[in-house]
Design brief:
11 helices; 362 residues; alpha/beta; 5-stranded mixed β-sheet
Amino acid sequence: MKENETKVWRINIKIGTKKLEDMEIIQKKCLPSENEKEGKGYIAIGWPVNTNELNIKKEYQKELKSNNISSNLAEKMKEEYQKLALKTYINKDKQIDTNKKPDSRMGVVNASNNIFEMSKGDICFTRSKENIYYVGRVMDDYPILAEYEVTWIFAKEASWLRKIYWYKLGREDDVPSNIVGWFMERREHTITVTNDENKISLSNLLINEKENQNYNIEKITINHDNYISTLSTHMLEELVCLYLQAKLNYYLYISSWKKTTKLFEYILVEKDTHKQAYVQTKVDEKIDLKYFNTEEYKDAKIYVLSGEGYTNDEHKPNIIKLSEDINENRVEYKKDLYDFYKNNIDLFGKGMQIEMKYYEFE
């Protein structure tokens, strides 16, 4: 990410309360109503604490009333809050030295770090429990303690708020697949920021179009070299799956997709020989090939595709790197895959076709 560039965040709504009526109240307060296309709202993190134990509470209240919270005070509040939150939630189960710098891998620490790291003007994406997607702008300079901003049930469930102006994007089919795929990624925190330049560019196009109806879209150019990075994790899986079936004579075992193995995305079978093949794809992570250099897979074809490359590459003939190797016709798989993608865009879902409003092939 470039210095001073608008950051792009994804907020996965995970409401701690188990009461359905509370969840509905919280969502209505945070997001525009079903009939509204846009409106003011919030994002927030949980882990509320007893704020009476915050040493600089009075100083914070004073600056909040004057609408002039300094960066120094905001940082102090974050540090005090994290120590108190760790004492409240983590130390119940194990002893943690709260005088040391908190471990950012802990959920409460990561979430509070991120909500403080957001800047005014940053872009946020979220989706409701009804799977309606929204894009918004951060409206404030620093987070606000929930109890000072709201009096409804949310104040009991949340610690920090950020004010957001939301725009409704619609359901999954109305949203670019790159954004939908972001919400499907595994091992992600509740609040996360992207460093993906293509996702950042797409996000700016989406919100600028919402903010200015006459906005002139400068499309992002897709070519043979960068197309992998423009795809979501899910889209890359689908592209490789369709390509292998259409061009390399395979059937897909649909039940294998994410269910039978953690090592591969899915399993295919060759139409004529009935031999199995395995697929692993990564958009922005290297693939470690050592896991496939085993006796179990020595007679099977393994197709791998990574936008970042590979580690422990021993050049086994049964492991085919779709981003580097060439096929029997002396054509690069990567180029052949790109041409298939470019010439068959209508094979993909509506979300991908919506995305092409912002992309163009070179």
